[in-house]
Amino acid sequence: MKRWQADLALAFVALIWGSTFVIVKNALDTVGPLTYVAWRFWLASILLVALFSRRLRGIRREEILAGGLIGVWLALGYLFQTVGLKTTTSAKAGFITGLSVVIVPLLATVLLRRPPGRSAIVGIAAATVGLGFLSLNKDLSVQAGDLWVLACAVAFALHIVSVSHFSPHTDPIRLSVVQIAAVAPIATIAAFSFETPSLNLPAATWGAIALTGVAATALAFGIQVYVQRFTTSTHTALLFSLEPVFAALFGWWWAHESLGAKELLGCGLILAGMLVAELGDTDATDTVPEPLADLALTSSD
Description:
By secondary structure, the chain is mainly α. The protein contains 13 helices and no strands.
């Protein structure tokens, strides 16, 4: 595969993830957010286990424990994000979720003792100001949905840092499959604790669950695992930063959502902060990497 083909495939993954915000938001009219996440990840887990069944043979206890711990952060990220989508727009949710990229350097400093570089600091500052423009009302109040999605961004950042810690010592595909499979029972327990799960859902809701479970989780994961071997980490980070942009575009086109000048400025600052934090300290001679250790779904979808 040529690099431009790999880049195109990764851009397609970002497109899939960006489109799911409005799909999930519409589905939440007929299903509880916790129930939605549970069904989505049961479906994705079954498909991924079937897809990588040979690779999972001989899986070690350490990989199961590491994947399970990472899966806790992944589960919290998706649960918080889906709850937040009930009371915020898909466009805002996409950009706030993207803040995980700039939260990671802060957590890495505290948890892994890896202080951020200058570019990361500048990116964090820009994204923080952008979050204020995007989320704060005139009276400085914040929508509950925005706070839930901000909690989601923190959970996803913890997820990324955890993967960075465990991945050098584990098989990347096994680690990723285990963590995704761990989300399903966690979401199921949460759904039975706070909602009343049901199989009696509209066909459109099952369609949304199938689309996000198959396309945005299992398929997107499979594409990422395969094609990221043929491009650079710099290209990957740049292409995945398109996810909130696609979320905003789908929100405008599909759900007729609109952002005012203040919100658009905030989105722009968050996107700039993400790019600076992720790419600013990357060597310009970045080469095609070995198969990724961090193969986890670090975005939302």
